[in-house]
Amino acid sequence: MGTGTKHAMTITLQDKEWFKLLWEGTQSKHPELLANPKNRTLILPSELGRGYKQDIILGRGVSLTLHRYQTSEDLIFVNSGMERDCVEFSFVMSAKVIFEGQLFVANQDVVFQNSDAPPHQLQQCGDTEFCAIDVHIAKSLFLSMVEDYEDSVLPVLRRIAAGKDNRPGLPPLGITPEMQQLLRQIWHCPHTGLTRSLFLEAKALELIGLYMQVAAGAGDNPLKLPNSDIESLHHAQDILQRNLATPPSLMELARQVGINDRKLKQGFREIFNTTVFGYLTQQRMERACELLQQEIAVATVASRVGYSSPAAFSVAFRRTLGTTPKGYQMSTCRGAR
Questions:
Q1: Residue 230 pLDDT more than 70?
Q2: Which helix (H) or strand (E) holds 85?
Q3: Cα–Cα distance for residue pair 70/125, rounded to 1 Å
Q4: CA-to-CA separations, 264 to 9, 79, 206, 260, in angstroms, rounded
Q5: Which residue would you say has higher pLDDT here, 34 or 78?
Q6: Whole-number pLDDT of residue 9
Q7: Distance between CA 210 and CA 216 in Å, rounded?
Q8: For residues 284 and 282, what is the distance between their CA atoms, to the nearest angstrom?
Q9: What pLDDT, on the 0 to 100 scale, is given for residue 297?
């Protein structure tokens, strides 16, 4: 299968290999799907699974990618990185992936991705269908939208649009019923030609608008949080990321970001869809996986990510990833001892 490697029921492919397999397979069996450069559909070869990936260029800086496929085995994608002149809103109906050692099971989630993608490796699990719609919008268009309505836009999104914040993305938010309706309309668009293009562009921009509304704490947010409090919650998120080994207490964290502990706890659950402790644990596990891949001793990793003992760390790690730290290390590092 090209130069991809297969081991332990897992296929590893470079990003260019993945694209080449899909393109050549589609070209040999369904060349008509590649005829229109603004609307191309790539079909998965039967040896990889079933389904398709469709790219739709709508003009004026907006495009869509529709994913609906399931691989026959786990696939590891080795991405060499890419430069993009756009930001991405990924509306994920279902997915199960492992990224930087952390298992993510998405079900009705929307994720904002900022600009360029650094080199990375991602494992897509074959037991779950990957179903998502990505909306891409040119940076210049995104910036103009944010500047025109900055008072109603989440501060972190304003900073990203202005190029003053290079974080790769933001935590996922839930897909609302209004978003779900728009996504169904995109999947089942009844129009053709220019009408289709204008229809899809309108729905894509409406999806972005709904995301911005939810991200700003508007709509159904029972806390009615002002932008200043939402900014404080993102500040708290950053503090936890920087202090995994010695995180502040809940009261101290609230004091540092200038809100009370009740609003901190409720706000985390509302905006990040997890508790403060749950977020801290997730970040600790991601960092632990990075250290384990460097063949650092389990006891040292436990200490570096803030656990009082290797036993406590092992329990938390197994609960999150379904394996022990040593088991994970041995499976990812051939030379692990």
A1: yes
A2: none
A3: 9
A4: 44, 36, 30, 6
A5: 34
A6: 66
A7: 10
A8: 5
A9: 93
